[in-house]
Write a structure and sequence with these properties.
- This protein has helices spanning 5-18, 87-93, 107-113, 117-124, 145-153, 167-176, 220-231, 249-261, and strands at residues 25-27, 32-37, 42-48, 54-60, 77-78, 83-84, 134-139, 157-163, 181-182, 197-200, 235-241, 264-272, 283-291.
- The longest helix has 14 residues, at 5-18.
- Helix 4 packs across helix 5.
- The strands form three sheets. A seven-stranded mixed β-sheet has the order 9-8-7-10-11-13-12, with helices on both faces.
- The protein is of the alpha/beta class and 315 residues long.
- It starts with a helix and ends in a 24-residue tail after the last strand.
């Protein structure tokens, strides 16, 4: 959990040079500079390239910061405590309760890839009634963010099956939701259980800024449409990056057309996790639908008190 020597040296050098006065820059090494902004509590280390454009190399936060987005590649670093977020703190950052059994490995990857539970719960509540008895198919299930969210909407939910191919993810899912069948790769399935609700945080990499996977994942919507039809569900909640409608416009249009043909009436909203009470500005596109009935009103919530990293830190 302690920051490495390089990170500690960067922070100490900046402290000695500027005493963390807001906006003051400190030369670090090999063309790198650092700057602290008091209004966000964030401390940046960057390099100017030949075209005088800034390339960010490091980012540190304080207890009074809010995170941009928890990513798979980097743990959140606290400059004022000289440490990373713990595994439990990362779970809290995504809205997972302390009763949740943590992964044994790939923790940052798994939480960086899951849904924020309060956002997912709000999206589900647009198509599921409070305490409604409901059966659930959890596609691209990850570590169970949607299953947790559903349980917070109704205590009468039963997740019948999930679909996940990353071993650390489905091992963690099994620990927390014992007895739920993992169907494996959704692209290889032809038979699905009949359920009321299908959720899917389908792969975002083809449409994200990173674009770290091949084109084969860009056609995942066809398997998703097949699964939704085969399950005969009457409610759906889908999640992806907010760029899905632009960088993935062709896929988005095909997906919406397929759902409309099946009789779903759709609504969508880009949710910002800090509006759900988390100290994170993560934005995700949620698409919700019900067969032949419009979902409830679906818009950003802005009446929740803002939180900071200090609110999720362990004692």
């Amino acid at each position: 959990m302690i920051l490495n020597a390089t990170d500690r040296n960067i922070i100490e050098k900046h402290r000695l040079a500027t005493n963390f006065r807001s906006g003051e820059r400190c030369f670090q090494f090999e063309g790198h500079s650092s700057v602290y902004f008091a209004h966000t509590g964030r401390f940046w280390v960057y390099r100017m390239n030949e075209k005088k454009q800034v390339r960010q190399h490091y980012q540190f936060f304080s207890k009074l910061s809010r995170v941009g987005t928890l990513t798979c590649s980097h743990r959140i670093k606290l400059w004022d405590e000289m440490r990373h977020l713990s595994d439990r703190e990362m779970a809290r950052l995504m809205g997972f309760p302390d009763t949740y059994l943590l992964p044994k490995a790939k923790v940052n990857h798994l939480f960086g890839n899951t849904v924020c539970v309060p956002d997912a719960a709000y999206a589900i509540s647009r198509v599921v009634d409070k305490d409604q008895k409901i059966s659930h198919l959890d596609l691209f299930s990850g570590i169970g963010g949607f299953a947790l969210a559903l349980q917070s909407v109704t205590k009468n939910a039963t997740t019948l099956a999930c679909s996940e191919i990353f071993k650390p993810a489905w091992e963690t899912y099994t620990k927390n939701f014992p007895g739920v069948e993992n169907m494996g790769d959704v692209r290889n399935q032809t038979v699905f259980p009949r359920v009321d609700l299908v959720t899917a945080g389908f792969p975002c990499q083809p449409y994200s800024m990173a674009k770290t996977v091949g084109e084969e994942w860009g056609q995942i919507h066809l398997a998703l449409l097949y699964a939704i039809k085969a399950s005969r569900c009457n409610c759906i909640v889908l999640e992806n990056v907010k760029q899905f409608k632009t960088t993935g416009k062709k896929i988005y249009d095909e997906l919406m057309l397929g759902l409309t043909v099946m009789g779903f009436r759709m609504k969508e909203c880009v949710l910002k996790s800090e509006d759900g009470g988390l100290p994170q500005e993560r934005r995700r596109l949620y698409m919700v639908g019900r067969k032949h009935i419009s979902p409830r009103n679906f818009e950003r919530r802005e009446d929740v008190d803002k939180t900071f990293l200090a609110d999720i830190l362990e004692d």
